[in-house]
Amino acid sequence: MTSPQSFKINTDYDVVFVRKQVRELARAAGLDTTNQARVSLGVSALAQKLGLGAGFEGEITLEVIRDEPERVGVRITLLCARGVNGGQVAHDLPRARWMYMVDELTVAVQPNGVTRVTAVKWGAGPGG
After folding, report:
1. How many CB atoms lie within 10 A of CB 89?
2. H or E element at residue 63
3. Phi, psi at residue 30, to the nearest 5°?
4. At what angle do helices 12-28 and 33-50 cross, to 10 degrees?
5. What is the pTM of this model?
6. How would you classify residue 56: left for phi > 0, otherwise alpha for psi between -120 and 50, otherwise beta?
7. What is the pLDDT of residues 49-95, one digit of tens each?
8. Range of 49's domain?
9. Theoretical Cys-Cys bridge with 77: which of 3, 57, 61, 69, CB 3.0 to 4.6 Å?
């Protein structure tokens, strides 16, 4: 199990760097290559939808999670403090086609206006 890793996002290059970090973390967590690609692409798409790196700053946190001894996954949390319409983002994200690249997706607009998006991708446990 690794400690959460947080990355400040200021430019598109930061998003590309984090995408690589997501893939490496997913590999280390034991996700197969298909799921590694899915979760890293999903993070890029989420960051793009929130406008992170495209002139808007935020933060992405990555961590390996475990809910059963057999099931390990990767959780990615994106925070965007810019003036996105959090309600619209919350409405649009679950409808996006790429959303199926992650297993769980939650969107919340905090009282301070920060939009928080959490995505989880689970790896298959032993035997499946």
Report:
1. 18
2. strand 58-66
3. 95, 10
4. 150
5. 0.84
6. beta
7. 888 887 778 999 999 998 877 789 999 999 987 655 555 665 565 55
8. 5-122
9. 61
